[in-house]
């Protein structure tokens, strides 16, 4: 179970006063508006930063952190991830789950036979797609009711129906 969720990546600096352009990796970029603090993953450590302001520009979020007032203080963090803790993640509705929690799940067919291990989830415009390692081969399963029959998040088991043409 992941303790941190990535909500953005520092794409570049913005101006000379320590602001950064962030590419959001969250479903709801508006969440940056109410954010009080965020965790910067430097690679060697995780630093808690206090968010001073957030505004939007095209598909990016412009963030300003308290105590970082120069381009020189922030420039070294280009390409680094911005994280939130599980407690500060967007609350889930019933039947929803965090993608990080389903990675590694055992995938079984409707008759109970083990099919493979869920390795990744691709987010597409229409529906998500599960990437399943099946005997050393990647199989892409659309997350639609005809294909994904059930998810047991406690047991980490996904039950699927292998539709004609998927193999």
UniProtKB/TrEMBL annotation:
Keyword Coiled coil part of the UniProt annotation: no
UniProt-listed Gene3D superfamilies: PRC-barrel domain (2.30.30.240), RimM (2.40.30.60)
Pfam families found in the cross-reference section: PRC_RimM, RimM
Keywords, in A-Z order: Chaperone, Cytoplasm, Ribosome biogenesis, rRNA processing
Keyword Heme: no
Location of this chain's protein in the cell: Cytoplasm
Domain Ribosome maturation factor RimM PRC barrel: 101-165
Residue stretches in coiled coil: none
RimM N-terminal domain mapped to chain residues: 7-87
Entry text on domains: The PRC barrel domain binds ribosomal protein uS19.
Role: An accessory protein needed during the final step in the assembly of 30S ribosomal subunit, possibly for assembly of the head region. Essential for efficient processing of 16S rRNA. May be needed both before and after RbfA during the maturation of 16S rRNA. It has affinity for free ribosomal 30S subunits but not for 70S ribosomes.
Family to which this protein belongs: Belongs to the RimM family.
UniProt subunit comment: Binds ribosomal protein uS19.
Protein name listed in UniProt: Ribosome maturation factor RimM
Source organism of the structure: Jutongia huaianensis
Lineage, opening ranks: Bacteria, Bacillati, Bacillota, Clostridia, Lachnospirales
């Amino acid at each position: 179970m992941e303790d941190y969720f990535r909500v953005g990546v520092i794409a570049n600096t913005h101006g000379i006063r320590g602001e950064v352009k962030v590419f959001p990796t969250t479903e709801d970029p508006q969440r940056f508006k109410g954010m009080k603090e965020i965790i910067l993953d430097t690679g060697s450590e995780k630093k808690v930063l206090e968010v001073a302001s957030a505004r939007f520009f095209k598909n990016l979020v412009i963030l300003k952190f308290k105590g970082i007032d120069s381009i020189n203080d922030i420039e070294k963090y280009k390409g680094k991830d911005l994280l939130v803790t599980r407690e500060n993640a967007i609350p889930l509705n019933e039947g929803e789950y965090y993608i990080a929690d389903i990675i590694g799940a055992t995938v079984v067919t409707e008759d109970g036979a083990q099919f493979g291990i869920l390795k990744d989830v691709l987010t597409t415009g229409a529906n998500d797609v599960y990437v399943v390692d099946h005997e050393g081969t990647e199989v892409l399963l659309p997350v639609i009711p005809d294909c994904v029959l059930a998810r047991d998040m406690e047991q980490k088991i996904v039950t699927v129906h292998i539709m004609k043409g998927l193999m």
